[in-house]
Amino acid sequence: MSFTDEYNKKLVSADEAVKVVKSGDWVDFGWCVTTPEALDAALAKRKDELFDVNLRGGILTKPLKMFEGEETTEHFTWNSWHMSGLERKLCGQGLAFYAPVRYSELPGYYRQQIKHVDVAMFQVAPMDKHGFFNFGPSASHLAAVCECADHIIVEVNENMPRCLGGFEEGIHISKVDAIVQGDNPALGEIPAGGEPTEVDKKVAEQIVAQIPNGACLQLGIGGMPNAVGMMIAQSDLKDLGVHTEMYVDAFVDISKAGKITGAKKNIDKGRQTYAFGAGTKKLYDFIDDNPELMSAPVNYTNDIARVSSIDNFISINNAVSIDLFGQINAESAGTKHISGAGGQLDFVMGAHLSKGGKSFVCISSAFTKKDGTSESRITPILTPGSIVTDTRANAMNIVTEYGMVCMKGLSTWQRAEALISIAHPDFRDDLIAEAEKMGIWRKSNKK
């Protein structure tokens, strides 16, 4: 049977495909931009007849149809490996829950712990002449999901970029149970953000000055990493490489500015390696069928040993708050969940172990609350309920608009002094007073 004949034999409507889902099932629902849309709408039609269906995915870029209207977890529950703003809203409604995990562990977690998935459904790029459906910019952990799934449904989207890699970037038609031809919707976008603020620029300037020619970059998502990317694109840096968890718009700008060659990379020389990509149409057009890029599973991109083997590895990420002990929270505001562990700790550790490597965690010194008052992001202790994403033993360079300090090798009183020195001036006296109460402030410290 030809691949075309097999395709036609397995081609069904979305309504027909989702009939395989039963009450009590665990359904893996893709990842980021590969989250299915036609299948979501079809599953939503079955809401009243299905109970206790657990869906699993992450970083939603579009609202899910199944949660429209009045909804309770009696029918569907969303379980997220990493939350976007849309998922935070569902979480606030009691419809979504975060599953804490180091992102790098996902492929192994599916293969060794989960082991069984009732149904897997996700969007893919059109089948190629060899019978393969490409996972688009979400190689991440989808191959591992498919290995564990009893039933695999792919939703074909002609707008899904074909992302080249080397392994685990797609699935063969022989392993697929049903094929749905979607309406080819535009991919969900995650805007790169507006123009950098003055705070963003001050933070970015300090970091860019620390990046040598030939460095290998990892950027997180957010205003500050984006500002760093914009500044790198306008800099005199050359022969940069990319080995990152998330491929973002800033990398496209740096690439088009001619700054990225990958010539100095110890591994995957000449390739920009990433686990998943999300941004604007500019990004999706750039990564489509681009041999310069390498789509790979997250246990490859985020492996600490692999990251540390790359010389001059530069990791740049955001945080929500940092306490005077150097504990970094990048996941929540107290008990209010924001995102997830992701791969920040992997890159913080890998960059420190890299020859010439550096890890930077960016944070504004303060933020304005809804009532118009300001609050320091550097706090005596983390707000109760806040999550420690990077332990104090792993923290390296912390950057605010008031300066940069390195935590490595500092005792508790030195850490307190260093962090207070880059806190907003309005809060420094209060932080000193709290540090004294906690016994981590020496009288000889500078005030």
Features:
alpha/beta, 25 strands, eight-stranded parallel beta sheet, Glutaconate Coenzyme A-transferase, single chain, 447 residues
Question: What this model shows, in words?
Answer:
With 447 residues, the protein is of the alpha/beta class. The protein folds into 2 domains: 3-181, 3-Layer(aba) Sandwich (Glutaconate Coenzyme A-transferase); 198-437, 3-Layer(aba) Sandwich (Glutaconate Coenzyme A-transferase), CATH 3.40.1080.20. 28% of the residues lie in helices and 22% in strands. It contains 15 helices and 25 strands. The chain has an 8-stranded parallel sheet. The mean pLDDT is 95.
Q: Which secondary structure elements does this structure contain, and how are they paired or packed?
A:
Blueprint lengths: L2 H8 E2 L1 H4 L8 E3 L9 H8 L7 E5 L18 E5 L4 H8 L3 E3 L7 H9 L2 E8 L7 E3 L7 H7 E8 L13 E3 L5 E4 L16 H11 L7 E4 L3 H11 L7 E7 L1 H8 L15 E6 L3 H7 L5 E3 L2 H4 L2 H5 L4 E6 L2 E3 L4 E2 L2 E2 L2 E2 L6 H10 L4 E5 L3 E3 L5 E3 L1 E2 L17 E4 L2 E4 L5 H10 L3 H13 L10
Parallel strand pairs: 1-10, 2-3, 2-6, 3-4, 4-5, 6-8, 8-10, 11-12, 11-15, 12-13, 13-14, 15-20, 16-23, 20-24
Antiparallel strand pairs: 7-9, 16-17, 18-19, 21-22, 24-25
Give a quick summary of the entry.
By secondary structure, this protein is of the alpha/beta class. It has helices spanning 3-10, 14-17, 38-45, 85-92, 106-114, 142-148, 198-208, 223-233, 249-256, 281-287, 298-301, 304-308, 344-353, 412-421, 425-437, and strands at residues 11-12, 26-28, 53-57, 76-80, 96-98, 117-124, 132-134, 149-156, 170-172, 178-181, 216-219, 241-247, 272-277, 293-295, 313-318, 321-323, 328-329, 332-333, 336-337, 358-362, 366-368, 374-376, 378-379, 397-400, 403-406.
